[in-house]
Amino acid sequence: MKNFILLLILSSCANVKQIDRGRLSSKIMKLDPKPEEQVFLEEVNSYREGSAGGSSSVGGGCGCN
Amino acid sequence: MAVIRWTLLSLFILSISMVHTFAEMLSPKAWKTKLLFNIYSQSSNSGEQVYDDSGNEDVFVFEPMLFASYQIDETTNLSAHITFDTWTAESDTRLDGNTGQSGKGIGGQSRISGNFSYSKEIENSLWTPKIGFSSEYDYKSFNAGLSWTGSFAEDNFTLTTSAQYFHDSTTLFDYVTEKIKEPEDKRVYSLDINASQFLTRSDIISFGQTTIIQNGALESIRNTTKIAGVRTAEQLPGSRKRYAYYTQWVHGFNDDLALSNKYRFYHDSWNLKSHTYEVSLRFNTNEEYGLLELSYRLYNQSSVKYFFNSLASIRPNFTNDSDLEGFTSHRIGPHYAYDLGEKSVLGLDIENLNLSVGAYYYTRSNDLTYMITQFSLGAEF
Fold it and tell me: Which residues lie below 8 Å from residue B5, measured CB to CB, with a gap of 6+?
């Protein structure tokens, strides 16, 4: 229940005002700073490992050599 | 029961409350393009699924990718991603060469794929329908998807849901008659839910869950298992349900240094479980024109319940695919990107020209290694 409340709090607060987002808008702070390069890295992961999900590769659309 | 209730409640909150894609919208009438070259070189002599007992899993892939995005107006964007691969794979070559399917080993193969998407921003929502295709000698895919991103709490919180459907077909090999079979259907359905939140001026967190359901022919053309000494094509169930739960935390130490931590837990109906942890240290260089990222990825998986190195007698399902065996892997590498700023190229005024380079070394505990090298040239105009 504590985790649920924590998640709810995290999900609904406006923590950072627009004016304070200078650092957050920097490339180093992006969740994925190289999305195009990441496409290939994830494609390879889906070929060479038995897992999928949490990325653009979801186990379809390739022959997986 | 309490765990199930907690999980459902958490997913519900995630689903109503999620990714910062709005920032990717360009100025009206602007183009953004990127040409990315990927080079993949794999080495292994321990692939016991390889038809001729050599274990040779060497692969070399050259894969150029073209990304293009055009901003029609302030709220509408069109994007395309075209890929062309050419590769040589020893396991294919040996399969083909040893069975005489084409009279000689396959020296080189190719694949072409494309994805096209249309994004429309309506109030605090971004809708993105997309379609795609992929074609290679043993696999064809047509796919479609729809994603929705909502922005809440003054853009502090974003929620994205994405659904995809793959209408694929795969070609298998009959090791008895030594002929390629007719293409068989494979269907993939995926649903991803992701939420991200600005926690402080220096912290972003994200949580997500992906469900993937695969039905149909899930085997690969090149995987065999020895049964009573005879090479037999792998037999896998016609369905696989896959679940991934993932999270990421990015913390900025100062304006020029940040640390990203990612973790994913995965399990599926074939009893494979995995843990993935990736950490990357990011530096702004050259007054923020440059970005240097050093990353390390640790991955561990258990084998699928159908994995056998060899069998004395046939079973309903079996595979000897080294990718589905239990192993631990490590990947490490740097990536560097640099913005050259405004340039004039062949009379065209480029608002920003950028370059990137990356290299990654990967090693797996069941004796497989690969190296990836990436180069790109991008332009916004």
Answer: none
**ipTM score of complex:** 0.88
Taking an 8 Å cut-off on Cβ atoms, the answer to whether A41 and B372 are in contact is: yes
H helices present in chain B, as ranges: 2-16, 90-99
pTM of the predicted model as reported, rounded to 2 decimal places: 0.88
Residue B291 DSSP label: E
Using only C-alpha atoms, what is the Rg of chain A? 18
For residue B124, give both structure tokens: 């605090």
Q: Pick the closest to residue B41 from B90, B104, B81 (CA basis).
A: B90
Amino acid code (one letter) for B379: A
Cα–Cα dist B219/B301, whole Å: 19
Cβ neighbors of B242 (< 8 A, separation 6 or more) are: A51, A52, A53, A59, B210, B211, B212, B213, B214, B266, B267, B268, B269
Measured CA to CA, the distance from residue B77 to residue B26 in angstroms comes to 8
Contact across the interface for B59 and A59, Cβ inside 8 Å: no
Cβ-Cβ contacts under 8 Å for B153 (sequence gap 6 or more) = A12, A13, A14
Query: Chain B closest CA to A6's CA: distance in Å?
Result: 10
DSSP string, B40-108: EEEEES--TTSTTS-----EEEEEEEEEEEEEEETTEEEEEEEEEEEEEEHHHHHHHHHHTSSSS----
Q: Between residues B308 and B139, which one has the greater pLDDT?
A: B308
**Reduced to 3 states, what is the DSSP secondary structure of residue A64?**
coil
The verdict on a CB contact (< 8 Å) between B111 and A17 is: no
Identify from A8, A32, A36, A55 which residue to disrupt to test chain B contact, counting B C-beta atoms within 10 A and taking the largest count: A36
Do B377 and B357 form a contact (C-beta atoms < 8 A)? Answer: no
Mutation for testing the A interface, residue in B109, B130, B139 having most A CBs under 10 Å? B139
- Residues B212, A53: C-beta atoms closer than 8 Å: yes
Cα separations (Å) of B381 from B51, B289, B339, B341? 51, 18, 14, 11
Instruction: Provide CB contacts within 8 A for B177, sequence distance 6+.
Output: none
Q: Retrieve residue A23's tokens.
A: 């650092």
Q: What angle, 0 to 180 degrees and rounded to 10, lies between the N-to-C axes of helices A2-12 and B2-16?
A: 0
**Looking at residue B136, what is its pLDDT?**
84
Task: Count the neighbouring beta carbons within 10 Å of the beta carbon of residue B310.
Answer: 12
B31-67 per-position pLDDT tens digit: 999 999 999 999 988 888 887 788 888 889 899 999 9
Domain B2-105+199-211+221-380's class?
Answer: mainly beta
**Chain A within 8 Å of B10 (Cβ-Cβ)?**
yes
